[in-house]
Amino acid sequence: MGPLIPNGLIPVEWNYVIAILIGMAFGYILEASGFSSSRKLAGVFYGYDFVVLKVFFTSAVVSVIGLYYLDYLNFLDISQLYVQPTYLWAAIIGGMIMGVGFLAGGFCPGTSFCGAAIGKIDAIVFIIGLTIGIFVFAEAFTFLEPLFNSSNLGHITMVDILDISPYWFILIFTIIAIGSFVFSDWVRSKVKKVFY
Amino acid sequence: MSKRYKTKKFIVKREYQILAFILVFIAAGLVLLPKYKKNEGIMPELFVKNAISSERYISTDQLADKIINQDPSVLLIDMRSEKEFNEFSLPNAINIPLKNLLDDDYIGYIDQDIYDVILFSNDSFYADQAWMLGNRLGFKNLYVLKGGLNEWFNTIINPKYPDETMPREAFKLYDFRKAAGIYFGVGAPKTEKKAAPTKKVITVKKKKKRAAEGGC
Amino acid sequence: MKGKKQKNRHVYWNPYFGGFLLGLLIIATFYLTGRGLGASGAIKSGVVSMVHTVAPTHAENNAYYSKFIKEGESPLNNWLVFEAIGVLLGAFLSGALTGRLKLKVQHSPKISSRRRLIFALAGGLLFGLGAQIARGCTSGAALSGMAVLSVGGFITMIAIFGTGFMVAYFFRKNWI
């Protein structure tokens, strides 16, 4: 019963081998879906290319449905999975800063790796920017610490705060995702095409 | 146009609708599938792994050492019946007969993580059973006195004098056991079930324990 | 223009197919390791080890670096670092197989590549800062978080994309 490594069913030595293999699959999928192109990524904000939204929502829906099926069939214990803690204001403000960074830089960290791997100089510069950004954060940590540690809500999930069965939430989420795909296709048909 | 071609055309034209329908159908499956209650406690694999490991055992010598040093983190629990408990038990032990283990009155003693709970009975049998129950439910810090009270008598109360051929450690151990036996109120090496006549009627009010009482 | 349009459509995978595979990969990752994917964590480890090498005392005194420094173990010896190496390899493989390997600066014809690089640097800086505050980037917090229905994952995703739409107007020259 999974997860395999935390439960000792795969020796820990395999951890890094698995990490590289998973990373390779991740990089391959991102690159092949077009995530190495910053103009394609930015398209979602201007309505000329919705690949980010489509890939993102499809993967979120598929993974959450799959994980809950595995849990239902007892292959996996969903309560053992790592849920990162929710720090409300840190998530909101950090997310907003990332939003501006996304529009300015045209990448997010994972996609910038893909871009850098196929020789996009802007992606390499973006990674340098990331490094500086993290350095700035660490140096200013004493100043940012109150924000970083404020409003800790613990390891909560949507199920906890909405007080709804996870299965119903997944169904609603799936329908919302499909609605967003239909909507994005409609928007795209209205917007002037951009070629890149 | 053949029928097959028509079907094919229909599928190609509406592939996204069909895929979306399948996705919603699968998601709805989670809602519609009959729910069942999952087993409580730790996973079977982990339980078996714990059960075959001997890490849960504590030897009588270790326990004697802990009691003599008045280790405050030890909580002794006697799994035998109340009658046997009244005849003899280890100092400061609490009596929880096995059948009452999961009663509301007693569960607080084993479902906690402050003390190292040491379970014992006449041999390891009841204690092992209690340990299995507790471990399955995910309780922490449960240990079993290896060999139980029988082993306690054979080693601490009435240690066997080592043969001349035995290594030095055996004599050291004998001395320790002898001293421990005296501590527990048995002067002479006799198999006499005496020791601290425990008048304590199940004092189950608080987790705190009194200081070790004995022959000193 | 028509030929180019053809190219736009067929050069990459169908997004739903890519999303489906990515979803399966996330499931596999959780099933194997009990945790999600990540990207910015690898760079964080890189920064920590760099600072630790250049100025060890400074790194140990800093409240943030010291969280990640363990005695006798390099901060680079980390799951996410290996995963990031894998991402580079995988993306390179995909680019090589489809003939996309090319050293270039990609930018809108309306701006110079110099301007593109400056914005990329600034964007990276902001993204790095934001990812540390929010404890994860789009892959770590939003993508993997949403798979386990984490509240933080949803909030981070809404914050990133909501802000993106709000500020999109000001950056339009860079992209359209």
Present the secondary structure layout.
The complex is a heterotrimer of chains A (196), B (216) and C (176).
Chain A: H1 15-32, H2 38-46, H3 51-72, H4 88-105, H5 109-117, H6 121-139, H7 141-149, H8 158-162, H9 166-190
Chain B: H1 3-13, H2 15-32, H3 44-52, E1 57-58, H4 60-68, E2 74-78, H5 82-87, E3 94-95, H6 104-110, E4 116-120, H7 125-136, E5 142-145, H8 148-157, H9 168-183
Parallel strand pairs in B: 1-5, 2-3, 2-4, 4-5
Helix pairs in contact in B: 4-9
Chain C: H1 2-10, H2 15-33, H3 40-54, H4 56-61, H5 79-98, H6 113-133, H7 138-147, H8 151-167, H9 172-175
Helix pairs in contact in C: 3-5, 7-8
Broad shape of chain C: globular
Task: Report the strand count of chain B.
Answer: 5
List segments of chain C where confidence is low: pLDDT < 50 over at least 5 consecutive residues: 1-9
The fraction of residues in strands of chain C falls at: under 5%
Biggest interface pair, counts: A-C, 134 and 126 residues
- Rg calc of chain B: 29 Å
What name does CATH use for the topology of the largest domain in chain B?
Answer: Oxidized Rhodanese, domain 1
Question: What is the average per-residue confidence, as pLDDT of chain C, rounded to a whole number?
Answer: 83
How do the SSEs of chain B run, as a string of H and E?
HHHEHEHEHEHEHH
Unreliable spans of chain B: 187-216
Give a written overview of the molecule.
The complex is a heterotrimer of chains A (196), B (216) and C (176). With 196 residues, chain A is mainly alpha-helical. Chain A is built from nine helices and no strands. Chain A is 68% helix and 0% strand. Mean pLDDT of chain B is 74; it is low at 187-216. By secondary structure, chain B is an alpha/beta fold. Chain B has helices at residues 3-13, 15-32, 44-52, 60-68, 82-87, 104-110, 125-136, 148-157, 168-183, and strands at 57-58, 74-78, 94-95, 116-120, 142-145. Chain B is elongated, with a radius of gyration of 29 Å. Chain B has a five-stranded parallel β-sheet. Chain C is mainly alpha-helical and 176 residues long. Chain C has helices at 2-10, 15-33, 40-54, 56-61, 79-98, 113-133, 138-147, 151-167, 172-175. The two termini of chain C are 16 Å apart. Mean pLDDT of chain C is 83; it is low at 1-9. Chains in contact: A-B, A-C. At the A-C interface, helix 1, helix 2, helix 3, helix 4 and helix 5 of A face helix 1, helix 2, helix 3, helix 5 and helix 6 of C.
